[in-house]
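It is worth pausing here to work through a concrete case rather than discussing structure prediction in the abstract. The textbook approach is simple: state the sequence, then state the predicted structure, then interpret. We follow exactly that order.
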Amino acid sequence: MDTPASTRQSEAAHGLDLDDQTLMQHWSVLRSGFRRLTSLLMADVEAKVGISPSALEVLCVLLETPEHAVPMGRLTQALGFSTAGTTKVADRLMDAGLIERRACPQDRRLIYAALTERGLEVATDCVAVLVESLRRRVVEPLGAERFRSISADIGSIEPGTI
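Step two, the predicted structure:
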């Protein structure tokens, strides 16, 4: 069977066959869709609570940890920020009274970032807005079961399995 000229030209131009091109198109849709959705969700929180996306990430990490505190180094790892980037966001949150730095009683070299009472309130408000936005922008259009399924499928892919 002859391959159409347009297909041969496309393969030659990109070095990809049609299956590979289709795979790349699906990846592009997934990547750009997730980026757009994340931007919309973060904008919803920022508009209603006044918390920037990077600050929201810090507050969410702290909200999910025991005692709402985590060593600064572990916070940096969880966020994927540079040390300087984490420090900059933490400084802004500290200036706003949302977090505090605490020394570890067992190891004075270790510094924890911890939510203040006000920080706990703001973080809780942020999560409430984020949950409402997720329901409106994601769960309603997809349906709860489809959303759970997509989440489970994506979550099952561990970096070590690739």
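Step three, interpretation. The domain at 37-161 is CATH 1.10.10.10 (Arc Repressor Mutant, subunit A). The chain has seven helices and three strands.
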